Amino acid sequence: MFSLHMRSLRTVGRRLFSTDVGQFPAAKQRFIPTSGNYPKGFYAGGSACGIKKNGKPDLAVLLSDRPAVASAVFTTNQFCAAPVQFDRQLINGAREAGGAVVRAVVTNSGCANAVTGKQGLVDARLMSEAGDRFVSRFDGGAVAGSSLVMSTGVIGQSLPVEKIEGGLDGLEVGGAHDMWMRAAVAYMTTDTFPKLLSRKYPGFSVAGITKGAGMIHPNMATLLGTICTDANVTQGALDRALAYAVARSFNAISVDGDMSTNDTIAVLANGASGALIDEGPAFVEFRDALTAFMAELAALVVRDGEGATKFITIEVGGARSFDDAKRVASTIATSSLVKTAFYGQDANWGRILCAVGYAGVELDTGSVGMSLWPGDGGEPLVLVEKGEPRLPLDEVRAAEILKLEDVK
Predict the structure, then answer these.
(1) Which Gene Ontology molecular function entries are recorded, alphabetically (predicted)?
(2) What pLDDT is recorded for position 262?
(3) Domains contained in the chain, number
(4) Which residues of 62-96 are buried (b: 16+ CB within 10 A; e: fewer)?
(5) Do 135 and 190 belong together in one domain?
(6) Which residues are catalytic?
(7) Nearest-angstrom CA–CA distance, 93 and 88
């Protein structure tokens, strides 16, 4: 362990970048935090190492001051990228070794290292080894195989590992909000704003960075996300909590229906906050907090969806199971007719009911109800009640709700 005045790694003269929110679109600035509550023992940083031709930030590190338990969920795309394959192996090895192994997550943007053959796997390993050396220079505590890697960007191009290695030589990390923001900016590809979130819960804190704007669909899409917590969680508890949380957050969003090659959501828990969480009420509290946090983080991805003009929340109640409810919601969310209706501010609610009907879930049609809820907290508009349409349709109220950005 090392003291709280630990050094930052830097190269004299290396250009840093501004994280002033003014550089991002005015409509998105309300989603960018200006301060945060970050978990104990985690440090962040980002810089430009030259992968992106425009010179924008493209390299980030999130580092724990002690070995952390790690769990991750990956893309189900059969062309999964080299970093996905590498991280899967590393985390499985960590489980076999007893859990707490991971010290850092190294992320690059601008090159996905996907569909790159055997060399892609070699490059992912070299990137991880560069991360291990970074941690060793920081505090001398890294061991081989302690750095996860994530890549996002153009598919089918070789990863310029030498640029990542050089970038890590000059990258600085710290615990301040601006350092976390630098890392979040470096995650961006087609994103229009950095997606950073932090929350303090009773007994522990959580912070996370995600990226994604296109190819977003359940079962993971072009999403990278790293979530750090100082909760003291066992490997089994973290695996269970993440599986539960991701089904209700990142696997419950859709923008364009495409699924990517690189998606990874990883959670690191370094235990700096205290009491061990394994099962019982403490586990449920942690699981539910992680779920709420990840749902909030996933919402930022939808906010930045390529071409998105609306943020639609689909809430399904009265289903026989969570899986049935999710299937109905997903069918509605991916319906082209429903999307065009919301885009055109058209109160053709029959399109929604039609999607519910072909979702493949057994229905009691005489009990179905449907309402539009405005995002401004105003009165909802009931459309269907106990299987019967509420007539006549209040078209004025429908128009008022549908012109809003947020609708449920």
Answers:
(1) L-glutamate N-acetyltransferase activity; L-glutamate N-acetyltransferase activity, acting on acetyl-L-ornithine as donor
(2) 79
(3) 2
(4) bbbbbbbbbbbbbbebeebbbbbebbeebbeebbe
(5) yes
(6) 222
(7) 9
> Is residue 284 scored above 60 in pLDDT?
yes
pTM (predicted TM-score)? 0.86
**The pairing of beta strand 232-233 with beta strand 276-277:** parallel
Distances (CA, A) of 261 to 131, 132, 286: 22, 25, 30
CA atoms of 207 and 227, how far apart (whole Å): 6
Strands 224-229 and 232-233: unpaired
**392 Cβ neighbours under 8 A, 6+ residues apart:** none
Spatial separation of the C-alpha atoms in residues 328 and 368, rounded to whole Å: 12
Whether 127 and 195 map to the same domain: the answer is yes
Place of tokens 């909590």: 241
Q: 175: buried, middle or exposed (CB in 10 Å: 19+, 13-18, 0-12)? A: middle
Tell me which H or E stretch contains 59: strand 59-74
| Tens of pLDDT, residues 99-125 | 789 999 999 999 999 999 999 999 999
Hey, what are 407's tokens? 């609708």
Please indicate, yes or no, if residue 7 is contained in any of the structural domains. Answer: no
pLDDT at position 369 is 94
Q: Give the C-alpha separation, 108 to 122, whole Å.
A: 16
Domain holding 351: CATH number? 3.10.20.340
- Residue 268: closest CA among 242, 289, 301, 296: 242
The CATH number of residue 284's host domain is 3.60.70.12
The amino acid at 69: V
How far apart CA 200 and CA 278 sit, in angstroms, is 20
Residues in the chain: 408
- Per the structure, the complete domain to which residue 230 belongs is given by 21-303
The closest alpha carbon to 245, from 202, 283, 199, belongs to: 283
DSSP letter at 33?
A: -
